[in-house]
Amino acid sequence: MKDIAIYGAGGFGREIACLIHKINEKKKSWNLIGFFDDGIQIGNYNEYGEILGGINELNLYTNEIAIVIAIGFPLLVKKIVNKIHNQNVSFPNLIAPDVRLLDANNFTLGKGNIISFGCTISCNVKISDFNIFNWNNTIGHDVSIQNYNSFMPSVSISGEVIIGDLNFFGVSSTVLQQLVIGNGTVIGANSLITRNTKNNETYIGTPAKILRY
How high is the mean pLDDT of the chain? Predict the structure, then answer.
């Protein structure tokens, strides 16, 4: 088994520890050695392991180690990835044992992705790097997803949707078919996207509209 640590020791990090344990129940794959977190003192513990340090300690780590980044905010994930310079670090994909892939032969996946429990992924789906798919996401056919996107529980992405970088999809939000979600978009919980979105805007409602402050 390969050593793995979780970057982020909060609630989502603890959920990822549970995901790793469930993966190991199916097939012994990972030795969870603890957590890295810049906001918690070294040597502290939660119920799943020890705090091993922050970004500095990770960059000085001398053994090969897999890191999964358990943080739900896309910009913060990107900042952390850009600060990791240790050649001993790799970024695996974590896929829950019950994830349904309709066609694994026509599915491409980059690195550093988390696909959690209950997700369904249709055919001819392309996913790049460092995306988080929380519980019970549905990804339709011919969907393309780039980097650093966070999908909260029960998000539905319809067929032929194109998704760029650094987008956040709130709980139970839905994107209709053949739409383009660009970059830096925030979609509120329970919102329905019926048109292409504009970059760096927040959308809420059914149908969703740009939120003006």
Answer: 97
